[in-house]
Write a structure and sequence with these properties.
The protein has 249 residues and is an alpha+beta fold. It has a domain at 47-216: Aminopeptidase (3-Layer(aba) Sandwich), CATH 3.40.630.30. 25% of the residues lie in helices and 27% in strands. The chain is built from 6 helices and 11 strands. The protein has helices spanning 14-22, 58-66, 81-94, 105-113, 161-176, 231-236, and strands spanning 4-8, 27-29, 32-36, 45-50, 71-75, 119-126, 131-141, 144-152, 180-186, 202-206, 209-212. The strands form 2 sheets. It has an 8-stranded mixed β-sheet. Strands 1-3-2 form a 3-stranded antiparallel β-sheet, with helices on one face. Strand 6 and strand 7 form a beta hairpin. The longest helix is centred in the C-terminal third of the chain and has 16 residues, at 161-176. It starts with a strand and ends in a 13-residue tail after the last helix. The model has no long low-confidence stretch (mean pLDDT 88).
């Protein structure tokens, strides 16, 4: 049965808490931080790219070349009609049976705009036809960029726009001196998440520490029913920031 640890993000200490728990495998959804904590499996593991260790392979170089005309624009987290139209096309094409398939425009706006921390919407446009091609909701952490949710034009499969967005975030991180790009969760053996394995410099949060991925098979033991620590032990091992602001009563 699926189970998660979660906590709310609010007040002056939101950024500090988000930074601390992101280092420990948590992810943000609006004003909540969560981490999978299933009783019989530890397969969902947070993944990030060490941008200083990343080296483009031939396929990634071709993807950069194919998307060289795309223009990037970073804005405050504000939802638009063009974004939602692209979001709907993406879901209907790629995730029509997923948990987000029924999201309406108001729920989409909440996903984008309800953020108590430093977040940006990064839009990619194609000037040749003045169209929105891709969008990423990205959090700016103290040590990297966290790609909270991204989507793209499903009618451009030859361009591998999803991979391009990750490559561009690596470039942004290098330009701004941030060491990591956080990609969300990775599951051993999942075909839908195997694209993350193609990035050199990939690290996986496994058994309380970040470990470089050399062979995906090294993490296969996390799918075993006996791989999971008791929930009380998981909570006890979470490290919180030493000085979070106290709320006045």
């Amino acid at each position: 049965m699926e189970r998660k640890l979660f906590t709310s993000l609010q007040g002056e200490g939101a950024d500090q808490l988000n930074n601390s728990l992101s280092h420990q495998g948590f992810r943000r959804s609006q004003n909540v931080l969560y981490r999978p904590s299933c009783s019989d499996c530890s397969a969902c593991m947070s993944a990030r790219i060490d941008v200083r260790s990343f080296v483009k392979n031939r396929s990634q170089k071709r993807i950069l070349k194919r998307n060289a005309t795309l223009q990037r624009r970073a804005t405050s987290p504000w939802a638009t009609e063009d974004q939602y139209a692209l979001f709907r096309r993406y879901l209907d094409s790629r995730h029509s049976d997923g948990g987000m398939a029924d999201m309406d425009v108001f729920e989409y706006a909440a996903m984008i705009e309800e953020t108590p921390i430093r977040s940006r919407v990064i839009e990619y446009t194609e000037p040749q036809f003045s169209g929105l091609v891709a969008v990423s909701l990205t959090d700016v952490l103290e040590d990297g960029l966290s790609m909270v949710y991204s989507f793209y034009d499903p009618d451009m499969p030859q361009n591998s726009v999803g991979t391009y967005m990750i490559l561009d975030h690596i470039s942004i991180a290098l330009e701004t001196g941030l060491p990591y790009v956080y990609l969300g969760y990775w599951v051993p053996g999942s075909s839908k998440m195997s694209y993350k394995e193609k990035f050199s410099g990939l690290e996986i949060y496994h058994q309380g520490d970040w470990k470089k991925m050399r062979d995906p098979a090294e993490f296969a033991d996390s799918t075993h029913p006996l791989s999971t620590d008791p929930i009380a032990e998981q909570v006890a091992n979470i490290h919180l920031p030493e000085q979070l602001p106290h709320h006045r009563r």
